[in-house]
């Protein structure tokens, strides 16, 4: 039966496309759009038949107390633009179509189009303009807001979902956005916690909006992760924010804190003139590219001898944070590359900055949550595993963090 239906469909398509031009098939008033319109109307007719209990023009309807009563025109929006359909009615007025419900003005596909544009950073005005240009459809700002506001419930569920008990690696970082509050534009920090879970996959644990980036707010976030079920984090990769290691230790005392080397180099270079930067960077590479912690310590001493007198604060930057610099030296190369920098979350932040810059200042915190959540969903589809040979890495973590990795 399935093959017969398939053959019938092929025969129908052959008839429809025979001698047809691309314009006739694909234009706004073409065959495909007419087929979609007819398909929706046929489905609604079938729903009404099911509701009444008898087919059109069937004598079985006599004496039933209800009958067909013509149609009502309805304007629908879908992913391909505007479509006018005829919705069948019954005389008693109690027919409730399911495919296109009463007061429904959008078919599946339209909302996805709006959300895709919104998640790419387009403003409401830009979305209106693009829909008008592409589909010759006028869409009100109120409709766009209703479509995007529906995402907020999804964001709330996602932000409060239960988490795994153990995460091998968590990257903590923030991106900054501008929000208009009481007529003034203020800069706010959006905090992100990106994890590598026990399957070796990236997983964003949440996003939080705060006044400005600080260790105290990170403490609240770490507590939130704990309340959502996280009992242990093996390695936490962070930037050089003051008080960060202490905040982590207060919630997850066993967690190994790895300072991002890229951030450390940037901080050290703040004290170095442009003339010497190339040479200083070259000598700093000898520190973090050393094969062992002992070799790194020797490289740091050599760096101090060469540059310590001229740039004492650059050397101090390394020495004061040495305890958080060295953990990655004890791991194999592949794991080193995954933990010695916050590049995984920095890359995510970079894509978010491109989107937020396009919008300028956001009107509310909720608008930030909507845009970033949709942007994160898009970005996550392209994520790859930070550590390719994950089974080997997980085995190594199991040995180093004995008893802390679930079996």
Give structural notes.
The protein has 407 residues and is α/β, with parallel strands linked by helices. Among the domains are: 164-259 and 347-407, Nucleotidyltransferase, domain 5; 261-340. Helix content is 51%, strand content 18%. It contains 17 helices and 8 strands. It has helices spanning 2-17, 22-26, 31-52, 110-119, 124-135, 141-159, 215-227, 244-251, 261-269, 274-288, 293-307, 312-320, 322-325, 333-339, 343-359, 365-380, 390-400; strands at 68-78, 81-90, 166-181, 184-196, 202-210, 232-238, 256-259, 361-362. The strands form 2 sheets. Strands 3, 4, 5, 6, 7 and 8 form a 6-stranded mixed beta sheet that branches. Strands 1-2 form a two-stranded antiparallel ribbon. Helix 4 (110-119) packs across helix 16 (365-380), helix 11 runs antiparallel to helix 12 and helix 15 (343-359) crosses helix 16 (365-380). The two termini are 48 Å apart. The model has no long low-confidence stretch (mean pLDDT 82).
Key features of this structure:
407 residues, six-stranded mixed sheet, two-stranded antiparallel sheet, 8 strands
Layout of helices and strands, plus pairs?
Layout: H1 2-17, H2 22-26, H3 31-52, E1 68-78, E2 81-90, H4 110-119, H5 124-135, H6 141-159, E3 166-181, E4 184-196, E5 202-210, H7 215-227, E6 232-238, H8 244-251, E7 256-259, H9 261-269, H10 274-288, H11 293-307, H12 312-320, H13 322-325, H14 333-339, H15 343-359, E8 361-362, H16 365-380, H17 390-400
Parallel strand pairs: 3-6, 3-8, 6-7
Antiparallel strand pairs: 1-2, 3-4, 4-5
Helix pairs in contact: 4-16, 6-16, 7-8, 9-12, 10-11, 11-12, 15-16
């Amino acid at each position: 039966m399935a093959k017969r239906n398939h053959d019938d469909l092929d025969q129908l398509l052959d008839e429809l496309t025979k001698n047809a031009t691309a314009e006739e098939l694909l234009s706004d008033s073409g065959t495909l759009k007419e087929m979609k319109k007819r398909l929706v109307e046929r489905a609604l007719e079938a729903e009404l038949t099911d509701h009444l209990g008898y087919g059109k023009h069937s004598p079985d309807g006599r004496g039933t107390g209800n009958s067909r009563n013509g149609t009502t025109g309805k304007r629908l929006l879908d992913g391909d633009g505007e479509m006018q359909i005829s919705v069948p009615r019954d005389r008693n007025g109690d027919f409730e179509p399911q495919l296109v419900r009463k007061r429904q003005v959008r078919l599946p596909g339209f909302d996805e189009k709006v959300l895709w544009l919104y998640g790419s950073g387009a403003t409401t005005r830009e979305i209106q303009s693009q829909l008008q240009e592409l589909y010759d459809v006028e869409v009100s700002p109120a409709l766009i807001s209703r479509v995007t506001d529906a995402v907020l419930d999804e964001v709330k569920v996602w932000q409060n979902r239960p988490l795994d008990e153990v995460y091998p690696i968590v990257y903590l970082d923030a991106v900054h956005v501008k929000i208009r509050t009481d007529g003034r534009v203020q800069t706010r920090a959006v905090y992100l916690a990106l994890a590598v879970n026990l399957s070796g996959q990236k997983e964003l644990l949440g996003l939080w909006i705060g006044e400005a980036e600080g260790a105290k707010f990170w403490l609240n976030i770490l507590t939130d992760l704990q309340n959502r079920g996280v009992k242990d984090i093996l390695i936490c990769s962070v930037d050089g924010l003051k008080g960060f290691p202490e905040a982590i230790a207060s919630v997850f005392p066993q967690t190994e804190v790895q300072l991002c080397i890229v951030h450390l180099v940037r901080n050290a270079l703040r004290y170095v003139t442009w003339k010497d930067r190339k040479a200083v960077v070259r000598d700093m590479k000898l520190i973090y590219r050393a094969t062992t912690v002992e070799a790194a310590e020797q490289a740091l001493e050599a760096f101090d001898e060469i540059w310590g007198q001229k740039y004492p604060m650059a050397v101090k930057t390394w020495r004061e944070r040495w305890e958080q610099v060295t953990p990655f030296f004890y791991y194999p190369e592949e794991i080193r590359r995954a933990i010695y920098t916050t590049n995984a979350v920095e890359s995510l932040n970079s894509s978010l900055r491109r989107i937020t810059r396009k919008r300028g200042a956001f009107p509310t915190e909720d608008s930030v949550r909507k845009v970033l959540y949709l942007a994160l969903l898009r970005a996550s589809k392209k994520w790859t595993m930070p550590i390719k040979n994950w089974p080997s890495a997980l085995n190594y973590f199991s040995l180093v963090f004995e008893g802390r990795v679930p079996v």
